[in-house]
Amino acid sequence: MPPISSSLTPLELAQQLEAFFTANPRAVLLEDGRELFDMRRARYSITSEHNRCMLHLWSEERNVVRTVTGLRPRARSLQLETRRFGQSKPQTLQLLPDQDRRTPTARDTGRRQFLHQVQSLVEQHLEGKLENFSTAMDLEQSLGPAYARGLLTRGPSAWAVVGVNPQEDAATLQNAITIGILWLHACRRRLEGRRVVEGLHLLLPRDTVGPVRERMAWLDRSLAKWRLWEYDPQGSSLTPVDTSDTGNLSFRLNHAFDPDAAVARSRETLASVLAMLPPVLRSNTEVRPRSASEIALLLHGLEYARIRREPVPGSFQLTDRVTFGAGPGETELNEETQPWLLDLASRLVQSRHPGGLPRDPLYRMQPEPWLEAQLRQNFDLLDPALRGEFLYAQVPAFSAADRGLLDLLTVTRSGRLAILELKADEDMHLPVQALDYWIRVRALHRSGELRSHGYFPGVELSAADPLLYLVAPALRLHPTYPILLQYFAPEVEWQVVGLDEHWREQPRVILRRRCSS
Q1: Could you tell me where the beta strands, DSSP code E, fall in 112-232?
Q2: Reduced DSSP (H G I as helix, E B as strand, rest coil) percent helix, strand, coil of the chain, to 5
Q3: Is residue 328 part of a domain?
Q4: Residue 249: predicted pLDDT
Q5: What would the pLDDT profile of 457-505 be if each residue is shown by its tens digit?
Q6: What are the distances in angstroms from CA 454 to CA 258, 448, 462?
Q7: Has residue 254 been placed in a domain?
Q8: CATH of the domain at 205
Q9: How many domains does the chain have?
Q10: N or C: which end of the chain has fewer CB within 10 A?
């Protein structure tokens, strides 16, 4: 194994680290095999000042600062040689591009072993004869090897069965309901006229059923029977889960704030930052308050700088702190780092525009916020009934990791809440993930918390449940969407909006589908 290279300069180390984080937004940082940071929920700063490459990472759980002295790229990771402050002995950190740390061989072996385990569970605890149990890839039905699936038959009736290995990542477990619906639908088509496929048995490891239980509660019970089970890690017991009770929903609701007041408090700092920028970037920058004490600067949806109103240490006074960096990267702005900001500004101007190169990381980064920025300027094209002056992002906030979607909340002219779920790339899980947000907004609306927390001031909100809009480029709408949406409960009124492929230049609706309710 080649040694970790220490011949790189601090600037070269910083550049390679920045390139890795930019290209891998779902990266995970490990120390001794233990996860320190999931970069979907963390932020970072990289500097090369004072002839040292400093890596600073922080999240709600921890705060870490290390000096990076060397790098070694590997097939699926980047190894870092680092030193803690005041210590001479180096430590090795490992950056993985995603959460799945298993090699392909280990992953396949684990899935084969689980197939036999879950097959035994079904045969011991559920009535019927298990047939065609497999993890084989089925591209026609959009079914992958992460899910064990089969058919449980008993006389003229049958049940679709899906089980998920506890070694799979959290997203694979939470999205099991998508696969369950698709497998149920595939079984019904294959056995049409021969057997009645009554419903779905879905088997998940203990303590992972929460998100799936919430979604399953809002599936149409007139179309199928839905059964959720949890099994213990040893695979010896199978326990039914009540899907009529969604349990404690996991989210938090922040109080609404006055965006104009937030900008006014930092007006001078904002003006000085904008004055540093190239005219093209300055004229195209969107200034968007994130909270009463934070303002973001964005170019086509990509946040590249932020101004935070913070207390002065040892004082009751407040001051503005400016940081910059694309995506989760943050570097504090001062005289030494100002050239870094100008370099980032130059690269943004060159890369982040509708005619940019799709392979450029700054062009590809955060496409959903780019789509949001375009829709904010062309809000009427989605639906003239929507009120563009009320548009809240990520309300409520999810405690779960990155869902790959952008959640927006607005209201119609008649006072009915409307949820907009934006997705720029093809994602078969969009409908059921959007259902999460609908469930939570509905709960907040029913409890009156939206009103008590200051949202939609002066609007008389309708008592009706929210509308749900799924918005994506038409060519990126997964072909399974009609199947998944037809199994939603009638209370979930949805609409699919497909945009022209050139939405970065000028969005245009070319497809619209509504539920039958």
Answers
A1: 129-134, 147-154, 157-164, 196-205, 225-231
A2: 30, 30, 40
A3: yes
A4: 67
A5: 999 999 999 999 999 999 999 999 999 999 999 999 999 999 999 999 9
A6: 10, 10, 16
A7: no
A8: 3.40.1350
A9: 4
A10: N
Of 430, 469, 496, the residue nearest 177 (C-alpha): 430
Query: How many other C-beta atoms lie within 10 A of the C-beta of residue 412?
Result: 19
Q: Would you tell me how many other CB atoms lie within 10 Å of the CB of residue 252? A: 8
Domain containing 333 equals 259-364
Question: Same domain for 302 and 392?
Answer: no
Q: Round to whole Å and give the CA distance between 141 and 30.
A: 36
Please report how the helices 430-447 and 176-191 are oriented relative to each other, as an axis angle in degrees rounded to 10. Answer: 120
Q: Which residue has the tokens 């195209």?
A: 284
* CB burial of residue 208 (10 Å; 0-12, 13-18, 19+): middle
Domain limit, last residue, from 37, 67, 96: 96
Residues with Cβ within 8 Å of 89's Cβ and at least 6 positions away in sequence, in order, are 83
- Looking at the fold, whether 68 and 178 belong to one and the same domain comes out as no
Question: Which amino acid, residue 389?
Answer: E
Nearest to 424 by CA among 401, 407, 406, 403: 406
Q: Do residues 121 and 170 both lie within one domain?
A: yes
Kindly state whether residue 447 falls inside one of the protein's structural domains: yes
| Co-location of 506 and 425 in the same domain | yes
Which of 8-22, 35-49, 267-281 is most confident? 267-281
Residue 1, in any domain of the structure: no
Return the ∠ at Cα 469 (arms to 468 and 471), rounded to 5°.
150
Question: Is residue 365 helix, strand or coil?
Answer: coil
Boundary of a domain, candidates 241, 270, 285: 241
Is residue 159 a contact partner of residue 199, using CB atoms and an 8 Å limit? yes
Task: Specify the amino acid at residue 225.
Answer: K
* Residues 280-327: tens digit of each pLDDT: 999 999 999 999 999 999 999 999 999 999 998 888 889 999 999 987
The answer on 295 and 215 residing in a single domain is: no
| Helix, strand, or coil (residue 468) | strand
pTM for the whole structure: 0.86
Cα(418)–Cα(67) distance, integer angstroms = 47
Q: Which amino acid is at 268?
A: E
Residues constituting the chain = 517
